[in-house]
């Protein structure tokens, strides 16, 4: 067992042995290391000013991902390379991203700029073509109040277009071989424990170690990507003295692509889950692209998005519509249940305190399935859903044989619209008049709340609008005529997220 | 270089530094993370971290109990301050008072600071601040405009101005419209939250480093609160991480709290607001209810306009006098009202005091004017651009000029010509026709297009603020430093002023250093606001530079021969009688000759005559103009929208720096678009702001900006003598975004021709869907 964490910074290994479990990467950088280039704009993962890049080995490849340092726990960067804005320029020579931002006037007040530089650095560092959409995706978690983004997007496109053979050409690419070796050397397979029984950060590797910790400290807090837990610390002022990080558990980040289903480990990040599930359907790809920003998706996990029990998490309605089930494990006991049964009521899930969500089984849609996923929010990018509709129909020629209509934001849990589902069965996709009972039933299926995101009325009207839209589209109206963004005709010959 | 045959630069040579698209002076520092904001400055040893404490439950009521024992006893806490610790006056108001630094006896809005905790670390201070026991005799707060009207309380007296007999004109007109609508506020969301660091110095001196648009006011108010002379509490600001008006008056309170802690403890003290605290504790753009009526003829030409603005000002006056005056000044936007009555009330609510925000009330006035134009067009079934054009003030070359409702002659108009140009380059008519056709065949999606103008008055309407000072030094090695009263918040002011100084000396821009704004270098300054930063400070700096240049010219003429008046400065050389010396050589020689190479410069805007009591005069030195054309598509099933194309033509006069000006235009437009479409402030019935974080308050992201975004500068120049004939550009472009709102309205109107959609600001998906429902199923119909 290791009593310290180690990360790579500017080619050197930084070892931190003594830190409070709730220390964030941002406070570590700014307060402990006095590296003040990285800014704090919100301390809740939403503005991107604190963006840094984490380098990791993925199947032997060196990959850089942006993360928001303000809600990233220091303990969870063990084994990574941490790149901050100060690291990019080489002896006064600006990184191509920095150069382009200067030349194209991409900074005004400059406070968002370090975070933007780092997000774009990760884009630059990823081999392959970069188009405007890729830049915008990469910036979805970075707010800039001054520029209106136009020059920032232009700078990113210019710098990335100048990459020889669409490969990064910078300090980091030049040092990639050494970095790979250094990262491999850090990966010692050890379990990590910092602190004592009273206050600790633990990152077990084996399930029995985890079981031991939870048996000894039943009140320990499980943490995966900390994109929820980080807010409890920073915003709710909660002290979490005993943290158990699930990110190092053996196999928990594994993806298995089987013939009729995809199995995701609970610690698979939202970004990775989006890449895998996005191949099933363009709406799924777009939904994942609209969950938070890249930084949060690179940290946050699919398991956390389910286990937190939120009624407005985006993946549960989708997974319920697809008919997913989950696996829960505690020492000596494994069980599996349909995902929809996991959510009992607002704030209550079918999970014992020492049970870990380990795997999510996602059936692949069949040939006669038609799927539509819609997220409604005030803002297109990085916003929590007011309403999320994931609607899957099984068609028998033109007759609707089965309907799974799952909604988020409409009740205290992610929930299926039982009445509307029943009313749709037997209706004809070719006969709009036959849809009417389902649309009416949907109004009675839910009694949503009014809150700061939307009124109950709007939620109901929008949900009905979404079902109507799904039916119109499945009946054959091109989505270029039904959607202000995310037309499937454009997406289908398009991108792999 | 543009030179005569003997190599001497021509006297009328075009500028070489001014007018260039030079990068922001701090661009390199920004992108490398090396630009230091206040939180990045090395902290002096022993710096205390300060966190404000407040009542988490009540918005309004008498404080029954304030028990801070547990706060004081918390680990790491060094001092806990309340109003009782204020040595002199407990007020940080920028105007008529009513803004206690720390609340006494009563709470007046949710989030009002009641005490301040100073601790060894920020985490310790934050933890301790939550331990206070505060009991408040909670009263039902007035939260909305309607609540305030019911209660009948105002922060300042009503105000109105009139031109002709609007009532009679409306009554006599062939057509009449009445309407009322709501305009929401806006959170500044500067990326850097409010912050200040106060460092004790010699004797009673406390030096304040603050992120503020108004260092003079910070110093002035700190002196008032601490009972010290202003000279003892200098304030300094190198740069802000955004301001947008939010750090004009409302940066002061935090700076003063830091100074107070430094004064009481003798230790340096830093306060930085957490984002959520910042959003709760600092003021926003004023929201309004607007009630209006208008009379007009068949062509849409107005006969008379009456409008009442009900502004929600919060608990105190702050800057509401000037802000709401500016709403009234811009209630005409670009339109010549033959008769008008423009009235306003400044309503008191039990919420944080509304404050300056880019446009300073102007945008709310203009939103009204443009809604009226759209409403007339919808009523008459004609194109809104034709209605707009029928009402424009005549251009400057016209035989007769229009007069605003407040008595200023509009003699510098260019909108007719500018709008003509934009109408052509944006292909407005053909696109409008295509959109009408699209809408006829599209049941789910509807499109809209609008072309709207902006006319924005430049000058502080509080006349004495229209002054500026600068301080320029030339060192004996030829390097130059410039200081002035303006502050840098990202708008590029420092870059522009450096360009002006470099131009004056014929030096490359890099030779001129800009330095932190500091009240002990240039005192008694105006806030950097009202878009006036480069107008005022550019002139002041130029005058300082000209004084020194005169001395250098003397030196050069002495050394090279020739007339002093004929000496030219170019290419880092000084030319006289066909020969030249390097600028550095001349500086060194001047120094040897015991000439002062340092000078102040001063500027006061000429020709401003505004008499508020008489409601008449010329408040503005000139107007800045622009127009934009936006196209949107809306989803009538969900209310979602997308802006698909924007064309802008904007008048920055003879631009000092086109890159910076275009940056202001694009950035202002997007910020305005956010206000009009997505940014929604939600308060609950208890007066608590629910949208106090970026997770719930949504400013635009890169995705919201249309790919097809065409911005051009109007080729012209200011018709009055502004600095290098440029025009102010900080605020006016914000209002270009009104075309987005008008385009949404037009898309909605296609659902039920002839009916004016009920659409407030902001046009969120929910607001749009509600309007759709009302148009498709009017009350009473199934
Ligand atoms: C800026 C921002 C934007 C966001 N936007 C969206 C959005 O658009 N849509 C959306 O759906 N969500 C959004 N989220 C929330 C989303 O990031 C989280 O719900 C995330 O998926 C949680 O995963 P995590 O790994 O970070 O969980 P953590 O924060 O580590 O944990 C969350 C909870 O789940 C528990 N937990 C985690 N893993 C397990 C496990 N394997 N077994 C048992 N319990 C476990 C933890 O104990 C904790 O109670 C956003 C968050 C932020 C900060
Ligand atoms: S500080 Fe805003 S995302 Fe981290
Ligand atoms: S440059 Fe100011 S926030 Fe982006």
Helix content of chain B: 25-40%
Put simply, the count of helices of chain B is 19
What is the annotated CATH architecture of the largest domain in chain B? 2-Layer Sandwich
Oligomerization: heterodimer
Tally of extended strands of chain B? Answer: 31
CATH topology of the largest domain in chain B: Aldehyde Oxidoreductase, domain 4
How many domain modules of chain B?
3
Biggest protein-protein interface? A-B, 86 and 87 residues
Overall, the morphology of chain B is globular
- Number of separate helices of chain A: 19
Number of strands of chain A: 20
What compounds sit in this structure? flavin-adenine dinucleotide, FE2/S2 (inorganic) cluster
Sheet with most strands: strand arrangement of chain B: 3-5-1-12-9-10-11-22
**Helical residue percent band of chain A:** 25-40%
- Report the biggest beta sheet of chain A as strand number plus sense, adding barrel if it closes: 5 strands, antiparallel
Q: Round the mean pLDDT of chain A to the nearest integer and report it.
A: 96
In angstroms, what separates the terminal alpha carbons of chain A? Answer: 37 Å
Which labels suit this protein?
heterodimer, A: 497 residues, Uridine Diphospho-n-acetylenolpyruvylglucosamine Reductase, domain 2, DNA polymerase, domain 1, Uridine Diphospho-n-acetylenolpyruvylglucosamine Reductase, domain 3, 22% strand, B: 782 residues, alpha+beta, Aldehyde Oxidoreductase, domain 3, Aldehyde Oxidoreductase, domain 4, 3 domains, 8-stranded mixed beta sheet, 5-stranded mixed beta sheet, 31 strands, 29% helix, globular, binds flavin-adenine dinucleotide, binds FE2/S2 (inorganic) cluster
